[in-house]
Amino acid sequence: MPPPVSKDAVFVNIPYDEGFRRLYLAYIVGLTHLGLEPRATLGIPGGERRLDRILALIQSCRYSIHDLSRVQLDRNPPCTPRFNMPFELGLTVSCAKLGPGRHTWFVFEARARRVQKSLSDLDGSDPNIHHGTVEGVMREICNAFVRSRAARPSVPEMMRTYRGISRKLNEITAAAGARSVFEARIFDDLCFAAKAAISQA
Amino acid sequence: MGRSVTITTPIPTLEEVGKRLKMSKARQQRLIEIVRGSGNGQLSERYRNVSGSVEVHVRNGSSVKPDSSQAKKSKRAAAG
Hints:
The complex is a heterodimer of chains A (201) and B (80). Chain A has 201 residues and is an alpha/beta fold. Helix content of chain A is 46%, strand content 14%. Chain B folds into two domains: 29 residues, no CATH class; 39 residues, no CATH class.
């Protein structure tokens, strides 16, 4: 029995490493600006049940974003590509096929036409290209999720919030006693902090 | 793959977001204080004046008042 779907929840399937820090924050701020609820696998511990919990997380979200821009080899030994993102995209596509109308997924990439090579099974579908920039992520989030004109934030507004939160990132991390922004607690804190910054503007 | 979807659900309030994340009020308040600029929930703004020293103004509601402790510090630094 699949879990109930949260209609504002967006499963964010992205790499969790320092090289992706700016875009990680951009996804959190951008989605929060649109009144959506970013969700990630950060809080899910390893072990046998991890896969079940990832599946449950995907099924509980009405939408998902899969950023397939990290196609390089990881520099830390052993040097390998990261398969988690395409794997979780595969799980999502299966869930969407098995429960039509329950889930909509989006693929984001940094470079145009690269997905056609890295994941040719997606041929015929157009990913959202963000060019590896924060502004690009904001723009593509706005292209994917459309709100009525009155409730629609502009990309410059989203960028202002992003810059504000980015300046406070170390303070937010230190206040939680965390060592990295890629921890479940910090993810929640950033979602709340982004909302607080938006509410203040 | 979706091209675009139209979102019609209402945008949640800050309180609703805090509740959904199951955050304690204290943690919410701490984050609000960090985001809004100072430890006491006030927004501080820094200006560099003509002499090159930095002035910090604390925004309290709609009025902006110079922060006397910061002004003294920057004057001392400029003199020293």
